[in-house]
Design a protein that fits this description.
Elements (H helix, E strand, L loop, with lengths): L1 E5 L13 E2 L19 E6 L6 H17 L5 E6 L4 H13 L4 E4 L8 H9 L4 E4 L9 E5 L1 H16 L8 E6 L5 H14 L4 E7 L5 H15 L4 E6 L2 H13 L15 H9 L5 E3 L2 H16 L3 H7 L2 E4 L6 E6 L2 E3 L5 H5 L6 H4 L5 H6 L4
Helix pairs in contact: 1-9, 4-5, 6-7, 9-10
Length: 368
């Protein structure tokens, strides 16, 4: 059974509708008729470098999987937009000019890139949206269940506040970039858990997910609310969580409130071990990246049945309907399950996490 999800690009809300659907169609996809064998070229466009996952995990995994799927005959071309929409558009144009066979696109700005997606379609190049749903005639979409991410974050904050929680408890929300449709989904999911249970005293949407902006916002929130009155902090990702923690420590907050994150960055895992950060959301990048590589190669090789089997969900963007999709599940990462998640999956070793500054905290957390 296929799940249909409507995704609207907006700063604060996302609209989701779930409905039973029939067999997958390809109405939104490229009209090209792929006939490639293993000699394929996959263009990979990532959005930024502030979040270390794209360079350290996503692209290397995609590159390796493409090689595996093509008997080492396939190749990847890589570019990173470094949070600059115009730069990414130029990189995508270069890949179109290079006549790559298929493009995996993680958009800096999901709306602004729509024209380039159309250019790729006109050139007969399918585009698979990766991690963030871009507008335009996208052929497929691979991401995590983003509203669930926000639900997990919000639920974790409620659990951290414990039985003494009160609806007057003041929460600071530091959300992601308005140009990223995922950010609105994270926020909507979090609000579904927080609404009515706590008071959102200050909320910020952080342009470009920039930690320096998040740190400034957190300092503003401390001044507005008072450092002794902040019961918890919702941070949409780990980089901004780290910035918020810096702002709180600079303000003299020695006992930090629970704070969320996302992406399970190494520094965040270490903060979770030490107790500075309450949790992160572990998104199994190997699952997402491998699924995207498989979807891209399958699409250009014209294996429609196999492609349909990979895309058991579907999404609607503001411009296109019924885009075949695969949505990967996520896990709340806390001190209790570090070993069974990021260590077990080979993302980090205990040695990576338990450097000299964290040895005693690691011992207390059972990491050895």
């Amino acid at each position: 059974m296929r799940r249909r999800i409507a995704i609207a690009v907006a700063a604060s809300t996302m609209s989701f509708s779930l409905a039973a659907c029939g067999a997958l169609g390809a109405a939104s996809g490229s009209e090209a008729s792929p006939t490639k064998g293993d000699d394929v070229t996959v263009g990979v466009l990532m959005p930024e470098k502030t979040n270390t996952r794209y360079e350290e995990f996503d692209y290397p995994i995609i590159k390796k999987k493409v090689a595996e799927l093509t008997d080492k005959k396939g190749r990847t071309l890589y570019a990173n937009g470094e949070a600059n929409a115009k730069k990414q558009a130029s990189q995508m144009q270069e890949m179109i000019d290079e006549k790559v066979d298929v493009i995996l696109l993680d958009a800096v700005d999901s709306h602004a890139i729509a024209g380039m997606v159309q250019k790729a379609k006109d050139a007969g190049i399918p585009v698979i949206a990766y991690d963030r749903l871009a507008e335009g005639p996208i052929d497929g979409y691979v991401s995590f269940d983003n509203e669930l991410v926000g639900e997990v974050q919000g639920r974790s904050l409620i659990e951290a506040l414990g039985s003494g929680i009160d609806s007057s408890d003041k929460i600071v929300m530091i959300n992601g970039s308005p140009s990223d449709p995922n950010a609105g989904q994270f926020k909507a999911g979090a609000m579904s858990e927080l609404n009515g249970k706590v008071t959102i005293a200050e909320t910020y949407d952080v342009d470009g997910w920039k930690p320096e902006i998040a740190q400034k916002n957190m300092a503003e929130a401390i001044n507005a609310i008072g450092k002794g009155n902040i019961k918890a902090v919702y941070s949409a990702n780990d980089a901004m969580a780290g910035a918020a923690i810096q702002a709180m420590e600079s303000a003299g907050m020695t006992k930090l409130p629970p704070i969320t994150g996302q992406d399970a960055e190494l520094s965040a895992v270490q903060r979770i071990v030490s107790g500075e950060q309450y949790m992160s959301v572990y998104k199994p990048y190997p699952d997402e990246a491998e699924a995207a590589a498989e979807m891209a190669v399958t699409k250009i090789q014209g294996k429609d049945i196999q492609f349909d089997a990979l895309a058991t969900d579907s999404v609607d963007s503001p411009t296109n309907k019924d885009i075949p999709a695969q949505l990967v599940q996520v896990v709340a990462l806390t001190r209790d399950n570090i070993k069974s998640t990021v260590v077990k999956d080979g993302i980090y070793s205990v040695k990576d996490i338990c450097t000299s500054d964290y040895k005693s905290a690691c011992a207390a957390a059972g990491l050895s």
